[in-house]
């Protein structure tokens, strides 16, 4: 049995003895396998006698007095090298206090497992993605229905205890969602009225029915275009703002702090926004109707020589109060949906700024989608009722 000493000082020694043993090969490590003895210990390992080809090797660490990361690495590298050379290596005698470190160092040196290459099947993958998307959409719809129930219960509780309603917050959001939206909403509604009047006049000229552009404009704007365009603009403007505001509070753990103080986040954050939007959206829709008709009247005067007096008389004869009500009655429903989706996605934000952006985009898409779907339901309902 050959022994090799790696010595750096009186108290820092690392021993290696190597030789045949019981038909196999034994390598014994002894002493202090620490950073101080790393250089000589590495040289001792390289100089130790090698076992014969295919011999079973026992790495005996019973006499190791101290072991740190460097020593564990050197001994683990020895075991790995012998394994690669075709030897069956068994580590024996490892003290319990050294076992965890030695195992962690050996595992750290191993290459991560290669991912299993899955066969690429486009049709199957498409079906899987479709199924996952469908399940996610159904789950999202159920969660939204549950959130609507929670908001409704909170509304009813505030009706019974109106003193808990924060009027200052409601007025603030009325200003943010209503008054501040007038410029952009008015401009877009005016331009839409101009476009509708121009396109309608271009088609009706062929039949000599230019005056009926007023009928076309009045019914389309008052019944559908005005409220739908208002809801879409508000969903992109105020719905996204609700998600971003509440999402930022969620990231900063302000929502958790509200709950910790014994306050209801739905009552404090959701209800004022929803109530404010339900008040402002009908007013914004009426304002959009007026601006759309005004834009159409300007275009009719510029291209068809229809005076404003003729426009108003024809509009009065073509449009009844039911048409105006049919458009405005949708506004509170659209407002509740937009506010609910915006606040719901804001409360779903996780702890990152990226999540705020993702949920804001999702809130706008879901809000506009639900507005259009509900508008289609209203159209079918009004047709069934003969409105």
Task: Give a nutshell description of this structure.
With 387 residues, this protein is an alpha/beta fold. The protein contains 13 helices and 5 strands.
Could you explain the architecture of this structure?
The chain is α/β, with parallel strands linked by helices. The chain has 2 domains: 2-108, STAS domain (Transcription Regulator spoIIAA); 150-385, no CATH class. Helix content is 69%, strand content 10%. The protein contains 13 helices and 5 strands. It has helices spanning 38-47, 69-84, 96-108, 122-160, 167-177, 182-204, 213-251, 254-260, 265-304, 308-318, 321-328, 331-347, 353-385; strands at residues 2-7, 13-21, 24-33, 57-67, 89-92. Strands 1-2-3-4-5 form a 5-stranded mixed beta sheet. Helix 4 packs across helix 9, helix 7 (213-251) packs antiparallel against helix 9 and helix 12 (331-347) runs antiparallel to helix 13 (353-385). The longest helix has 40 residues, at 265-304. The radius of gyration is 38 Å and the shape is elongated.
């Amino acid at each position: 049995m050959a022994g090799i000493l790696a010595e750096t000082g009186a108290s820092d020694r690392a021993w290696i003895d190597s030789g045949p043993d019981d038909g196999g090969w034994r390598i014994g490590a002894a002493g202090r396998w620490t950073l101080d003895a790393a250089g000589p210990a590495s040289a001792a390992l390289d100089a130790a006698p090698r076992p014969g080809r295919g011999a079973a090797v026992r790495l005996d660490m019973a006499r190791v007095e101290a072991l740190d990361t460097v020593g564990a690495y050197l001994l683990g590298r020895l075991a790995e090298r012998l394994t690669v050379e075709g030897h069956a290596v068994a580590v024996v005698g490892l003290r319990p206090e050294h076992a965890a470190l030695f195992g962690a160092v050996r595992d750290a040196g191993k290459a991560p497992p290669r991912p299993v290459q899955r066969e690429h099947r486009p049709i199957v993958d498409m079906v899987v993605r479709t199924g996952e998307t469908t399940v996610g959409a159904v789950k999202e719809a159920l969660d939204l229905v549950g959130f609507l129930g929670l908001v409704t219960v909170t509304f009813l509780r505030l009706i019974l205890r109106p003193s808990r309603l924060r009027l200052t917050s409601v007025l603030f959001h009325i200003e943010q969602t209503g008054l501040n939206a007038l410029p952009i909403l008015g401009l877009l509604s005016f331009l839409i009225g101009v476009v509708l009047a121009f396109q309608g006049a271009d088609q009706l000229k062929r039949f000599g029915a230019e005056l009926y552009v007023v009928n076309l404009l009045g019914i389309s704007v008052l019944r559908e275009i005005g409220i739908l365009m208002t809801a879409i603009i508000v969903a992109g403007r105020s719905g996204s703002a609700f998600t971003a505001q509440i999402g930022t509070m969620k990231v900063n753990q302000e929502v958790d702090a509200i709950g910790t103080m014994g306050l209801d986040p739905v009552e404090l954050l959701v209800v004022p926004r929803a109530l404010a939007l339900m008040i402002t959206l009908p007013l914004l829709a009426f304002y959009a109707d007026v601006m759309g008709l005004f834009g159409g009247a300007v275009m009719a005067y510029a291209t068809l020589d229809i005076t404003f007096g003729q426009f108003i008389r024809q509009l009065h004869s073509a449009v009844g109060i039911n048409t105006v009500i049919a458009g405005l009655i949708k506004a509170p429903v659209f407002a509740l949906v937009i506010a609910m989706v915006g606040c719901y996605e804001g409360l779903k934000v996780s702890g990152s700024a990226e999540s705020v952006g993702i949920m804001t985009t999702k809130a706008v898409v879901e809000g506009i989608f639900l507005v259009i779907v509900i508008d289609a339901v209203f159209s079918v309902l009004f047709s069934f009722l003969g409105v």
